[in-house]
Amino acid sequence: LRYEKWHSLNRIMLLGILLLSFVIPLLQSEWFGMAEIPLNEAITVSLNETFDETASVLIVNDVEERTLWSLFLVGLYITGILLSVLVRGWQFVSLYKFMPNGCVWEERNINGWTLYCHAHDVSPFSWMKRIVISEADYESDAGRAIMAHETAHVLYRHSYDTLLVLMAETIMWFNPIVWLIEMDLRCIHEYQADDYVLSQGVNSKNYQMY
Q1: What is the pTM of this model?
Q2: Where are the alpha helices (DSSP H) in 50-202?
Q3: Cα distance between residue 133 and residue 135, in whole Å
Q4: What is the Cα–Cα distance from 101 to 116, expressed in whole angstroms?
Q5: Which long-range contacts (CB under 8 A, 24 or more apart) does 34-39 make?
Q6: 3-class SS of residue 133
């Protein structure tokens, strides 16, 4: 679907893949009549069927080594999650502190959106129902297009997609596919916002120059 022009479909597919990756592992094989033998039972069976004492000791040592290795991997996984939570938490705190800091003026509309206009140069962005833009950009010729672009992100609720992906990245920080999904999803968000801007009557050639 890389060249699919229906951006909403691509958005649904990416989010669906992300959600299914969590749902499918929850489907236990026992539900379909394929019972699994627990590890301790398998060890007992192996020991009972083995009359060689040396072989039994080797089996036990192998199980112990695999247990230690498993504990190491679990510890590494949990450490990665904790670091991800700390980094994301710091980013969110910094974001919410930054938005009102240095504002020339703040405006709220009837939909509950908040516009923060900054005195210093800042790249325009939006998060949830908040839009941040510099005074220079707001008053420039591109101001209307920029505002329409950021408004589209709010209307399409792109922040919720981003929040979902960030949660997935925290849980599956080791999986590069999750990070690739985030990159593709951000591109789709931009395509949707661009389409919205053009639908508002902004000249496409002028918009490209912005």
Answers
A1: 0.79
A2: 53-98, 135-139, 143-155, 158-171, 176-199
A3: 7
A4: 9
A5: 39/63
A6: strand
How is residue 87 written in tokens? 């980094």
**Burial of 111 per CB tally in 10 Å (0-12, 13-18, 19+):** exposed
Q: Are 161 and 189 in contact (CB under 8 A)?
A: yes
Q: Is the pLDDT of residue 73 over 70?
A: yes
> How many of the other CB atoms lie within 10 Å of CB of 18?
20
Asked if residue 91 lies in contact with residue 97, where contact means CB atoms within 8 angstroms, the answer is no
Closest listed residue to residue 192, CA positions, set 150, 136, 162, 139 = 150
9 close to 155: Cβ distance less than 8 angstroms: no
Q: What percent of the chain has pLDDT over 90?
A: 57
Q: Is the distance from CB of 8 to CB of 192 less than 8 angstroms?
A: yes
DSSP codes joined into one string, 90-125: HHHHHHHHHTTTTEEEEEE-TTS-EEEEESS----E
Confidence bin at 92 (pLDDT 50/70/90): very high
Give the N- to C-terminal CA distance of the chain in Å, as an integer.
28
Give the whole-angstrom CA distance, residue 47 versus residue 55: 9
